[in-house]
């Protein structure tokens, strides 16, 4: 028999924990226990068109779904009875240390998602000790991002614009401001068919139509930020004059200013202009990876742009082992597209990646809560990297490598 007593306030009052010192915004972020929760918060905070710009992909969004599917097919074979009391997540990416085996991928128009934009992301990355890549189509100047990033590692991502001198100018400014790696994104000769953006008529800077106003009114925090801060613009490129007009319809012509004639022969031009490591992002075939390695680039990113370019392009996690086998000894092979957890990062490393980029994962955090949201996204990913390593029975990132520990992970057919 269980002995019962009448409930007394003095007994259960101490159990009712009131968390003091944290705002309800922070508590809401703390309540997000994975990146999907952050995406749900983002969905609530940002207007539909803005959320769709981030969350959406090209055409029927098959690649995006397959990216996620490939990570679901991951099967770990953990080692047990290993001392994993201490683990180190530190590694070297492109010649310099990173506290985690992942970096924040370049993403455009970031101030549209939250007015704190690129500087917020750069600050989180710098505090965390991981690299942050600024996009050509960023909404903050190169100089401001450098100031926010401080002593943090920063990379610069280039879309080649038709005016080569403008590309040269951006690269020189980036170099001068301490950006140490050039990421050359090569999977955007033209923009992918972003149907969600075409339907919503989203533009940069966002134009205030009745539809956006009404939708914005349903998201008052976002609208207040939007109306009380400078509108997002192409500040990274410098005052937007490299673009066809100051307003660009995202669903249609955002690549109109980009040079779609760039080819492998142009890589030597970048070598002349950029004195530092060059990484080619958007590789989706083994033979292209081999050509990059032959040309001596320091790294490649096996990427389908998160499914935002050619729909039904190959899932990068599946392609990764073949690319690593072909060029992994000559150039660093990074991977992205579909990473939503620390376990995903660990799986990619165990399939031979040298590092991983995350895109939407931190953008959902940014949309959900600005800098604090990005910090939450980082913390969730980092905790999960560490936990997954411990559960797999490894103490260091080097031990994740298939060359050291074959068979830690495979992809189920
Ligand atoms: C909203 C958004 C904007 C992006 N903008 C750029 C960009 O300006 N330059 C670039 O090289 N890649 C860009 N990307 C692609 C990312 O760098 C990265 O390849 C992709 O997000 C990885 O997939 P994931 O979002 O599933 O992590 C963008 C991705 C998103 C989601």
- Summarize model confidence as the mean pLDDT: 92
Sheet with most strands: 8 strands, parallel
Total of DSSP H or I helical runs spanning 4+ residues: 17
Q: Percent of residues in helical segments?
A: 40-55%
What does this structure look like?
The protein has 413 residues and is an alpha/beta fold. The protein is built from 17 helices and 14 strands. It has one domain (25-411): Alpha-Beta Barrel (TIM Barrel). The strands form 4 sheets. The protein has an 8-stranded parallel β-sheet with strand order 4-13-12-11-10-7-6-5. α3 packs antiparallel against α17 (360-392), α7 runs parallel beside α8 and α14 packs parallel to α15. The protein is globular. It starts with 8 loop residues before the first helix and ends with a strand. It binds flavin mononucleotide. The site of flavin mononucleotide has 26 residues, from α4, β13 and α17.
């Amino acid at each position: 028999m269980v002995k019962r007593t009448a409930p007394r306030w003095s007994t259960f009052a101490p159990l009712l924990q009131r968390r003091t010192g944290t705002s309800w915004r922070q508590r809401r972020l703390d309540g997000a226990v994975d990146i999907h929760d952050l995406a749900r918060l983002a969905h609530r905070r940002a207007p539909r068109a803005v959320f769709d710009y981030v969350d959406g992909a090209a055409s029927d969004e098959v690649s995006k779904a397959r990216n996620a599917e490939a990570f679901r097919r991951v099967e770990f074979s953990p080692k047990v009875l290993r001392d994993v009391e201490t683990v180190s997540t530190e590694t070297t990416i492109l010649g310099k240390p990173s506290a985690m085996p992942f970096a924040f991928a370049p993403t455009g128009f970031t101030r549209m998602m939250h007015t704190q934009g690129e500087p917020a992301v750069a600050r989180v990355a710098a505090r965390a000790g991981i690299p942050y890549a600024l996009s050509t189509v960023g909404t903050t100047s190169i100089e401001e991002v450098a100031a926010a990033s401080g002593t943090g590692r920063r990379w610069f991502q280039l879309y080649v614009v038709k005016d080569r001198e403008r590309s040269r100018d951006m690269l020189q400014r980036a170099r001068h401001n301490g950006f140490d790696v050039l990421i050359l994104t090569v999977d955007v000769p033209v923009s992918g068919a972003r149907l969600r953006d075409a339907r919503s008529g989203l533009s940069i800077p966002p134009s205030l139509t009745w539809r956006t106003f009404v939708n914005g009114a349903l998201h008052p925090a976002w609208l207040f930020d939007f109306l009380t801060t400078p509108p997002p613009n192409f500040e990274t490129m410098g005052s937007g004059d490299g673009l066809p007009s100051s307003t660009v319809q995202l669903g249609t012509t955002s690549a109109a200013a980009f040079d779609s004639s760039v080819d492998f022969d142009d890589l030597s031009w970048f070598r002349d202009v950029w004195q530092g490591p060059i990484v080619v992002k958007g590789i989706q075939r083994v033979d292209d990876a081999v050509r990059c390695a032959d040309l001596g680039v320091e790294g490649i990113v096996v990427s389908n742009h998160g499914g935002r370019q050619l729909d039904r392009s190959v899932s990068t996690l599946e392609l990764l082992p073949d690319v690593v086998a072909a060029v992994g000894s000559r150039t660093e092979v990074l991977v992205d597209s579909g990473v939503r957890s620390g376990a995903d990062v660990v799986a990619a490393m165990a399939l031979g990646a040298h590092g991983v980029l995350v895109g939407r994962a931190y953008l959902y955090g940014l949309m959900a809560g600005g800098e604090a949201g990005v910090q939450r996204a980082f913390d969730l990913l980092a905790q999960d990297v560490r936990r997954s390593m411990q559960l797999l029975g490894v103490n260091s990132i080097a031990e994740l490598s298939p060359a050291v520990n074959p068979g830690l992970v495979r992809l189920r057919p």
